[in-house]
Please model this.
Amino acid sequence: MSAVTARLTRDEQAIWDIAATVVDPEMPVLTIEDLGVLRRVAVDGDTVTVDITPTYSGCPAIDAMRDDIVSALAAAGYPDARVRQVLAPAWTTDWMSSEGRAKLEAFGIAPPLPRDPGGAVKVGLGIRCPHCGSLHTRQLSRFGSTSCKALYVCQRCQEPFDYFKAH
Amino acid sequence: MNHSNHVVSTAITAESIADSSLVAPDAVADYALGLGDDALVLAHRLGEWITNAPELEEDVALGNIGLDLLGHARSLLTYAGSARAKSEDDLAYFRDEAEFRSRQLFEQPNGDFAATIARQLIASVYFAELYTALSHSTDATLAAIAAKAAKEVDYHVDHSVQWLQRLGLGTDYSHERMQAGLVAMWPFVDELFREDPYAAAAGDAAVDPRTLRAAFDATVPRAIVEAGLDVPAVPAARGGGRSGVHAEAFGPMLAELQVLARAHPGATW
Model:
């Protein structure tokens, strides 16, 4: 997230670090910073504003994340923090940090592949099983337990697993 | 609209529009209301499939698609309501049938699974073209809502085209039912692309639905033919959703959508 955090003042960095401790309620190994949901913090006198962006338009987790940011900042001495939800630019899995991808895989969820870069030849890359590492996997369902995931099964170890869809 | 990674525009969704100073201009609010109603009504219809789809994966798929549409509806209705000091819930739960502006395709009963897939095919391609065009709106909030929605409905198009092929090229019986589903939904295609006075009044903030027809006609009939099916030759329905004229099945659906909120106004949990 260095592109986002590079120009922060010391106060803003402190607030960013507190907000960045909040985790996704449905994938608690990922922080909102790992996900790319935490976009911006601003300090103006006593007013603290934190901008977050939803992963998918209908994602219900965003409300819990917002409440958790307010609680975390209140506990750290910022009782009047305001959390705004921004829609533009639209969230993409390309914003997920490499730490986030590693944590997801360790948790048993295959991390998102890079999005289609375009070009004439479309080659579908194999999704690697987070349990045994095999690329011999098969999509069971394009839709999964949350908006951001699809359901796969490993043909080597036979275990089903979630894949975090490239979006 | 700025697409760079670290400059964030002020478009806000759902609850946060309420506590921001973002207020839609009247003409834009009127336009957004119709779009929000379309998304809300189809989201509700898809929700009716949960526990009723032919297989568990489809319960999840149609539920997920409905959830995306509900997200679009919440953003659009919240923004529409900002011009009249109404919340998304005021607009969804406390307007009567004639005040809704949803178009009749989205109101159609689910029918069998093939009819739902036919409705999804038409709706998803329409939404994909609409939101792609609307992402260039001169209204920054509408543009942001649309840019996000466009990415999501792309996935919905894939879902319906895959089912169209499986059913169209499957057994004689699945083919027959998929064809019947297309025939049932096709009369409501035309209304989606008719002149919309609310779009006209909103000018460059809106998309003239008539401009979307060519892209639809270049995509959907070909997909139908590739699935071994015939593009239905049926007369267009009269339409009128944007003026509050609705399909017969809409009233009962709306009653179910609104009953809890009207029985317990202001309830939260």
Q: What stands out?
A: The interface with chain A takes residues 1-6, 8-16, 19-20, 57, 60-61, 63-65, 67-72, 74-75, 140-141, 143-145, 147-149, 151-152, 155, 158-159 of chain B (CB under 8 Å). Residues 143 and 261 of chain B are 31 Å apart (CA to CA).
